[in-house]
Amino acid sequence: MTVSAGVCPLGPRKRGKVPAELSARVPAEQRGPRLGRDAVRLMVSRGTEVAHHAFRELPGLLRAGDLLVVNTSPTLAAAVDGRIGHARVVVHFSTRGDDGRWAVELREPDGRGTARARAGSPAGTEVSLPGGGRLLLEEPLSARGERLWWARVAGADVREVLGGHGRPIRYSYTERDQPLSAYQTVFALPSPDGAGSAEMPSAARPFTARLVAELVSRGVWFAPVTLHTGVSSAEAHEPPYPERFSVPEASARLINQVRARREGLQAPPRAEDGRVIAVGTTAVRAVESAAGPDGVVRAAEGWTDLVVTPERGTRAVDGLLTGLHEPEASHLLMLEAVAGRAAVDRAYEEALRALYLWHEFGDVHLILPEESPHPEHCDGNMR
Fold first, then answer.
1. 49: Cβ–Cβ under 8 A, 6 or more apart, which residues?
2. CA–CA distance, 77 with 80 (Å, rounded to integer)
3. What pLDDT band is residue 7 in, cutting at 50, 70 and 90?
4. How many whole angstroms separate alpha carbon 42 and alpha carbon 187?
């Protein structure tokens, strides 16, 4: 099976739809006995060349000196049932603002345990929350539309509401509710202020502690960053909204060190010099938000509204490990920024042909840069 040439709504053309039967409905470890999170497939592309592997083979596909940038944001139990008068709604808590308000999306139950898009509610709409809290819509998050609203909660602490009454956000292609632990990655760390991601940074889900230990033993480095991802649009495929991020000084230093060695700024370039590979588009957004025009990454934190496009390109990231998502999703522009349009088109064709599983519980795709041999070094002035 192939897909038509195209791109997401931000581009001039559109790719084809993914068949429903290719949606991963349950986590990998629930598909059979003695399976773990790493029991997913791994597609590897270098330019338009594509190879197929098991995810457990990842340590053999990387090399000593490679640096994996990982997102430490924990996943929140961000879906909460509520009521507007007598009408049932589902509140998706997306992003906590600096002023204590939350960006939220109101949806309506679909009768299958998930929720569908709901017609917009006006400012001043009040939602009753479990435990006696009240949520008041104040203003749209963006002039682009009224899907997400800034809202204030009174009579309850949002962290307690999520902890006592929340559940992970899930969409209709999944089979059943899963415990919050199924949505936490091995890299997730609790935030002091209770912040986290409304939706799992899913590219890191197949990693296990054993696999991480093997990677470290082979000389692969890890650089933690944080980006608290908000609620994506399952229907409109909007570009991402501003999100909170942090790139620590130690991680920025590691990224710069790997890049400098490869570019021969600290030592003659060697075949084993590493690459900066982001685990997930969230890690790309965090790192690129901290990268200057010169490609140097500096410690940074705050809010980012960066949208990585092919026109902008990537300044610090060489490769990307990502899940497989709907072709209309705006993150495909980021993939094209890393790999180029032809490579992304080829990878999507191959993923469909080989019946890869899609979405957060599905298979993954490793995008590596095309290799070019280092020039020979001669003695004397030509060195």
1. none
2. 8
3. very low
4. 19
Q: Identity (one letter) of the amino acid at 252?
A: A
**Cβ-proximal residues to 127 (8 Å cutoff; 6+ apart), any chain:** 82, 83, 84, 89, 91, 106, 134, 135, 136, 137, 151
The C-alpha angle with vertex 343 and arms to 366 and 232, in degrees rounded to 5, equals: 65
- For helices 281-289 and 331-339, angle between their N-to-C axes, nearest 10 degrees: 70
Max alpha carbon distance in the chain (Å)? 83
Residue (of 381, 363, 336) closest to 18 by Cα position: 363
Beta carbons within 8 Å of 43's beta carbon, 6+ residues apart:
50, 51, 52, 53, 347, 350, 351, 354, 356, 363, 364, 365, 366
Report pLDDT for 174: 87
Residue with tokens 């008068």: 85
> What local confidence, expressed as pLDDT, does residue 16 receive?
59
pLDDT band at 13 (very low <50, low <70, confident <90, very high): very low
CA distances from 98 to 81, 101, 102, 269 (A): 24, 7, 9, 44
Candidates 269, 216, 186; CA nearest to 58 is: 216
> In a 10 Å sphere around its CB, with 0-12 CB exposed, 13-18 middle and 19+ buried, how is residue 82 labelled?
buried
